[in-house]
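P.,

For your records, the input lines for the assembly:
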Amino acid sequence: MRRKNNTSKTPDQIEALIQQAASYEPETEAPDDLVARAMASLPADVPAPRSSARNTLFAYGACGAAAIVGMGYLTAVMIGRGNASNLPDEFGVFKPSYTGSGGLGGMQTANVEQPVGIQEQSQEEQVSPRMSERPAVKSQPDAGASTPEAPKRGRNEAGRQFVPRVPLHTETVELVTEGLSDPAFLQGQGSDGETMMTPVMVNTMRSAEKPASQDNEDGGVPQLDTK
Amino acid sequence: LYEYFPESELVHKALAGDSRSFAALCDRYRSRVWRIISSVARGPDVDDLAQEAIVRAYCALCSYRAEASFEAWLCRIALNVSHDYQRSAWKRKVMFWQDSPDVYDEPGESTEDEVSRRETQRRVRKAVASLPEHQRAPIWLHFFEGFTIAEVARLEDISESTLRSRVQAGLKRLQSSLSDLPDLPMEAVVRLAPESKGCRL
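Structure tokens returned:
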């Protein structure tokens, strides 16, 4: 009988013990049909290795395509939503346009379209060679314009007093002569019925005979009623 | 026909979805799988566990990176199956009462010495099996199955130095857990070392 000792063994002795324990052989040999029986016992729902890899690839592809579409949509939204007024006109002049592309201030305004009649008239007048032959067309109120609701001054739910933001609404009313713009006030009505005036810059048509200050009764500042 | 194909070609076909190539690969190394399973189980359990190891390997074939040899990868799966089998309470009880499946007979060895040696081997295997997985698998694959440190490192996807430190830590833990075993005679240590399948660290 070997003598037992409770002292710590050296690494060589440990390795020798392991190697002695590893030196065994199974009592029986592996049967020849082991693998065949194992493959036959595979469940029917076990996918082939290639198909699972293909599924993984398809999932990654779908996620990538969705991400590209989402980023494209966000980019389109952030770049001004394709508003044509952001582009220069035929004369290479940028028109003032604050027609509601969001913006940093978070102001929300409504997109305003010009009436079809005015647009057609403007195009005809642009091709006219002489300024004096143009008819004196006054700035007309935009029939399609709508003033967004003005927020009320008061207290919010938390009890804090807040100052409402006045939405800045600027429209291009006429395009007859390029580069002429006047300050104006856009008259609107708030949700509580009060009248609110919004400062705007408008493109105006001025006749060649009269100065702009004499064209309007209130000092050349056109009053627009958008109701 | 498949038994004449090189292993790399069979691996390539198996990864592409050819189940017959996979079966041919497993058929080459079925003795290895059988031996690993036989170290912890006996009787009909060995056959069941060996089949389970092959089925697990087939299901996990996508995770095979072909950096290590297919043989080492299959042995690793068989080792996991064996460990799961050993970990179950019922099998622990069976292993406790059953004799270890050793047929390692020393010429001229007395019955008393043979019983003592088998008990020692069983204790060592049990101690190795109780190591944490990151130490158990390298020690088993290196010392019991004879894979080199480089092969096991590629299989475990770690550096060789990391694997060596894990093996050393596992051996140190075995020193304390096997301290009550009788010392092997020096001639056995000297005799076993050159015949060992594993490489010395």
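Two observations worth noting. Chain B touches chain A through 66 residues (CB under 8 Å). Confidence is low (pLDDT under 50) at residues 96-105, 190-201 of chain B.

Regards
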